[in-house]
Design a protein that fits this description.
- Strand 5 and strand 6 form a beta hairpin.
- About 40% of the residues are buried.
- The radius of gyration is 18 Å and the shape is globular.
- It is α/β, with parallel strands linked by helices.
- It has 5 helices and 16 strands.
- The chain folds into 3 domains: about 90 residues, Translation factors (Elongation Factor Tu (Ef-tu), domain 3), CATH 2.40.30.10; about 110 residues, Nucleotide-binding domain of ferredoxin-NADP reductase (FNR) module (Rossmann fold), CATH 3.40.50; about 40 residues, Dihydroorotate dehydrogenase, electron transfer subunit (Dihydroorotate dehydrogenase B (pyrk subunit), domain 3, Ribbon).
- It binds flavin-adenine dinucleotide (FAD) and FE2/S2 (inorganic) cluster (FES).
- The site of flavin-adenine dinucleotide has 21 residues, from strand 4, strand 6 and helix 1.
- Flavin-adenine dinucleotide binds next to strand 4, strand 6 and helix 1.
Length: about 260
């Protein structure tokens, strides 16, 4: 079931030059939200921004009726969101889309994110931990100055970092990390979100090692509810709406 609620912005934390983590609070109880789902935020008072913007649900705190969104400033809509002051009202359509599947007990998942694509992996890791599975994160950034909230991830499980310039963690891309170079991986399933080129490389690795891989796509969206068909992705069963049948897909299903 989907809801449209007015949330109040209670915190706007800057983590890198162009990224804000917004904490939004609702007056009433939150509905059940699954990891991998997203919101469509209305961007008010911004000329030229008519459509809501899709943003992953970064974290959920049911006891405080709060959700968090990690927003990267790439254009007019996200710029307006990043500039919002505490106390602002945000109109949110949520929770939308299909979730990441929870692995069976005893399975070891690896959560791989790149840049702002790390956003949905925090709540995914929290859901895994609540199910008795300790998550392991592999997070890729450009450099030390672009790291986002890595301490918060490390409260849930192990965090491995790559940076393109080697200023923190392993130098290179996530697929260059030693954990991805092992011929006998310690992981059963990969969950990934980030630049498409990164997710394709991760999916190829998973396929070569006989592992399941779930990727969260960030196709351009408008309605977010399956009505406009502007977000379709080619799959082995034809074009599918990423807003309703995704954004999370088994990578074997995608025709990238
Ligand atoms: C399911 C889903 C989850 C998302 N989660 C997040 C998130 O957690 N945090 C976040 O910062 N962003 C996320 N995005 C991307 C975000 O929706 C776009 O960056 C945003 O809509 C851009 O709006 P704008 O008005 O700022 O930019 P626009 O002015 O619309 O575009 C500016 C630039 O951004 C590019 N762009 C626009 N939309 C996308 C997109 N969907 N993917 C890649 N490039 C895009 C455009 O091609 C253009 O170059 C998500 C997208 C989807 C579909
Ligand atoms: S965004 Fe309209 S159908 Fe997906």
């Amino acid at each position: 079931m989907r809801f449209i609620h007015d949330f109040t912005l209670v915190n706007n934390a800057k983590y890198a030059a162009d990224v804000s983590v917004l904490t939004l609070q609702n007056d009433s109880d939150l509905p059940q939200i699954a990891a991998g789902q997203f919101v469509e935020v209305r961007v008010d008072n911004t000329p030229g921004v008519m459509l809501r913007r899709p943003i992953s649900i970064h974290d959920v705190n049911y006891s405080k009726n709060q959700i968090k969104l990690m927003v990267q400033n790439v254009g007019k809509g996200t710029d307006a969101l990043c500039r919002l002051a505490v106390g602002a009202t945000l109109n949110v359509l949520y929770p939308l889309g299909a979730e990441f599947p929870v692995p069976e007990q005893g399975k070891q998942p690896l959560l791989i994110g790149g840049g702002c694509g790390v956003a949905p992996l925090l709540y995914l890791g929290r859901c895994f931990l609540n199910n008795g599975i300790t998550p392991c994160f592999l997070l890729g950034f450009r450099s030390m100055s672009t790291l986002i909230e890595t301490k918060t991830y490390s409260e849930l499980g192990e965090v491995m970092i790559t940076t393109e310039d080697g200023s923190v963690g392993h130098k290179g891309y996530v697929v260059n990390h030693p954990v991805m170079c092992s011929e006998t991986p310690n992981f059963d399933t990969i969950y990934t979100c980030g630049p498409e080129i990164m997710m394709k490389a991760v999916a190829k690795y998973a396929e070569q090692h006989g592992m399941e891989c779930y990727a969260s796509l960030e196709n351009r969206m408008a309605c977010g509810i399956g009505a406009c068909l502007c977000c379709v992705a080619p799959t082995v069963e034809g074009n599918k709406c990423t807003c309703v049948e995704g954004p999370v897909f088994n990578s074997k299903y995608l025709q990238w």
